[in-house]
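Before our next group meeting I need something from you. Please put the record directly below this note.
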Amino acid sequence: MKVNYYLFILIIMSTTQAQTWPNLQAPDAEKKIFVRDIHNDRVEDPYYWMNAYFKKTADSTQIIDYLNAENKYTELMMKDTEQFQQQLFEEMKARIKEKDESVPVFKNGYYYYTRTEEGEQYFKYCRKKGSLDAAEEVLLDVDEMAKGNSYYAARGFNISPDNNLLLFAVDNVSRRQYKLYIKNLTTGKITDLQISNASGSTAWANDNKTFFYTQNNPSTLLSENIKRHVLGTDAQKDAIVYHEKDNTNYIYVSKSKNEQYILISSSATTSSEERYLDANQPMGEFKVFQPRMKDVLYSVVPLEDRFLILTNHNALNFKLMETPIHSTGIHNWKEVIPHRNDVLIEDVEEFNRYLVITERFDGLNRIIIKNRETGQEKLLQFDEPAYMVYPTGNAEYYTDNLRFVYNSMLTPSSIFEENMQTGTRNLLKQQEVLGGFDKNLYTAERIFATAADGTRIPISLVYKKGITKNAKNPLLLYGYGSYGNSMEATFSTTRLSLLNRGFIFAIAHIRGGEEMGRKWYEDGKMMKKMNTFTDFIDCAEFLIEQKYTSKKHLYAQGGSAGGLLMGAVVNLNPSLWNGVISQVPFVDVVNTMLDETIPLTTNEYDEWGNPNEKEAYYYMKSYSPYENIAAVEYPNMLITTGLHDSQVQYFEPAKWVAKLRDENTGKNVILFKTEMEYGHGGASGRFDYLKEIALEYAFLFKLENIKK
């Protein structure tokens, strides 16, 4: 009891003592003349020079010096929270079961799993033959492989059909550009295949010596080619089996679950195209399944005697079709599951006797099991108000067992296995939260705000029981709202450090995601993007109106496209927030989308528009955070990025911060931190990322404890 008592005292002291900001001068970024002139619109951009690092110009050293100065400023401004940051780090780390093991996945005679060791940042990839009681074979010791690297990501583990070879990919820079390696599981020898700039994913042919991979452009990072490699041959001579001519499309290669086909997928936001090849004939020619059609998305699921097609052709929320193996054109497609206005079909997973359909209804996931022989359907039932559920680890085609993950804001991630024939359901593993977590001490809610145009916007909340509605509650509102990515109401061990100190956490399920169907996405992109930002503001104002919090205690957070959201809402309503955390933010929309040399720019035209077109240019300019900074009092802000970020380049937030400081009329602080060794996803180790979260939480608590 004494330990718990003193811990309680430490928590109270560290979060209630009044704090102040040091009287320090923020870095002053140099301004250099640059004018953007397009569509008869001349715009001065004094910080355009900040994109110099990857161009290796004379300004490269200057930008590094500037980023280091910003890091030092943030460090000194947050100096009095260092002990609290360490406390938060240790507290969050202590909830993680360090020595752990994933649920084994059975495939082709082996059980595959990863396990982690106490104190180690990474993991070991292992297997056992035939039985869980068999001897363990450590395929890759990533803890050992990562030594000496500040960043290390190993992924794309792919076993050959004869179980003797392991393909895998490594990125030790954090640019999501991978090198491919192969390990002989008989001899233990690892060979560098001399294949770089790969996406990381591969597909084996059935001859055990040929595989296909995606190779990216080294400058733009666009996925350009699918190549074929034969073991023992020179990788520099690998044949290009597919070249993508449309630089707005992403491409990737995969293998069907039934091992019969190699599939090449090319897709943009609004259209897609598939190719297929018999996996027993790797030297053959890929066939086009159905030539790409304007505004039509489709994906293919091979069965034994037919193909299934999930498509939005004349079906906004998608429908499921089927076609014979040798008659794949759209005129042969027949309906299996019709389109429904209130149900979005998100995915289909195939088994020899069943189909598992993942749908979204009224903002929540659901899983339907469909018997292929009888057509009978079963809906899996769950009883919490908001949750996430999805199939996972179903590598085998010939099985009646379905595995799925379930979690909610109250329930840690849980892996279940259900027999699709008998309905028997077993819990295989639930994420263990060390330190005595009790879900009964917390409350979750799902409420709806009303947008200015009358649209109902879902909000998911979680908080500690005993908290009552009043204006003094600190509340962190999280949002994203882009690419059709739905923000799920999921569990977080790190979030407990907020909840246990009195914070309410909320997710605004705004338009631009797909929570309420495909139209939800369509109404928050391109020329309707402003809905994303006004939805978030409407949610915040609703939470204040309902007495969950007040402006003095309201905080907002988002990353990447969610960082764009943060930049837009502080321009639209700067006085609404006491503090904002913007992670790797996409805030210089116009300039980035005009520069086709920047990684991924052209892939994004279907999401944001092409600013070379006048109408799109002016609409983007109307909301782009960097373009709309004004002489107002901005809220306190913590902005973070990674120098090697391949998704949102470091210079976007760097420019944004410099310009915000120019215009800010108030005394609130604007802090900027660049991780000099990392990219878009932050640290690669399973503990290091906690330091980033500890800084963010310390920023929030410091704002709460500064006398207002």
About this structure: The CA atoms of residues 53 and 60 lie 4 Å apart. The first helix runs from residue 2 to 16. The chain has 13 helices and 38 strands.
